Amino acid sequence: MVLIVLNTIYWHYRSNRDDPYVNKTALEQFLWLETQLETAEEQGKKVLITSHSPPGMDIDEHEPYWLPSHTKHYVELVVGKYHTIIAGQLFGHMHKDDFRLQLLDSSDIKKSFALIAPSLSPDFNSNPAFRVMSLDKQVLALVDYNQYYMDLDPAFPIPVWQMDYTFSNKYPSTNKFLNADRIDELNQELLNKGNGLFWKAYALSRQVNFWPDYYPRAILYCAMRYVFKQDYEQCILKLRFSY
Fold first, then answer.
1. How buried is 183 (Cβ within 10 angstroms: 0-12 exposed, 13-18 middle, 19+ buried)?
2. pLDDT, tens only, 211-221
3. Collapsing DSSP states into helix, strand and coil, what is residue 127?
4. Contact 221, 190 (CB under 8 A)
């Protein structure tokens, strides 16, 4: 297993796109990433990718986290050319507990996924949290994680970390792996209005057992499913929701 750590600040939409150094470094990192993926593929290894900010949509601003050209370049690598060796992607930045799919286009059957971990910082109305991932060493695939959190209301003067949930228990499935198919299945449950327990569990988890923000199901579903802005907006229009 290969762990690739990226500095996505160079791909972020707030990076100084007029700065030659930033642009040069952003492109150099893509060249480095492709070299690492090519080497891993040649050696028959699986890859985990981790960084701070994820690709995809910011549902508060309805804009992409990364510059569009960088999002496209990244997705072409991890969903297109090297999708068979990507075991998963681990990101943060959102201060939310969430999941994201990645498709090259809305009709493409090839897909990858990212797990968005909540933050240790209580900013943006959430309890501090962290995760412990579980890996199947035989097939080199993610299978589960335990999430722990600190409830800030009763935490002082003695802070206590406690179990929040285990993914496989909170979101049970016949799929024993934590992969793109599993996140796709979970994504579809967002539109299953008959499954009220799932919706409540998911909505409360996003803020790590803090008072949840209000986001319509359509927004959360489309942001989880589509990494590109145009697909996200078409999804929202299809579901007849206007922001």
1. buried
2. 666 778 889 99
3. coil
4. yes
| The CA-based dihedral angle spanning residues 142, 146, 151, 154, taken in that order and rounded to the nearest 10 degrees | -170
- Whole-angstrom distance, CA of residue 39 vs CA of residue 14: 31
Distance, CA of 194 to CA of 61 (rounded, Å) = 29
Q: Which residues, listed in sequence order, are joined to residue 166 by a DSSP beta bridge?
A: 146
DSSP string, 169-214: HHS--S--S-SHHHHHHHHHHTT-TT-HHHHHHHHHHHTTSSPPPP
Its sign, for the CA torsion 150, 153, 156, 158, is negative
Gap between the Cα atoms of 11 and 26, Å rounded: 6
Digit-coded pLDDT (tens) for 31-87: 999 999 999 999 999 999 999 999 999 998 999 999 999 999 999 999 999 999 999
From CA 219, how far away is CA 232, in angstroms rounded? 9
Tokens of 188: 């579809």
Tell me the CA end-to-end span of the chain in Å, nearest whole number: 42
pTM metric for this prediction? 0.92
Cis preceding-peptide flag for 157 (omega within 30 of 0):
yes
C-beta separation of 146 from 131 below 8 A: yes
- CA-nearest of 137, 134, 147 to 46 is 137
CA 237 to chain CA centroid, Å, is 23
In what helix (H) or strand (E) does residue 26 lie, and over which residues does it extend? helix 20-42
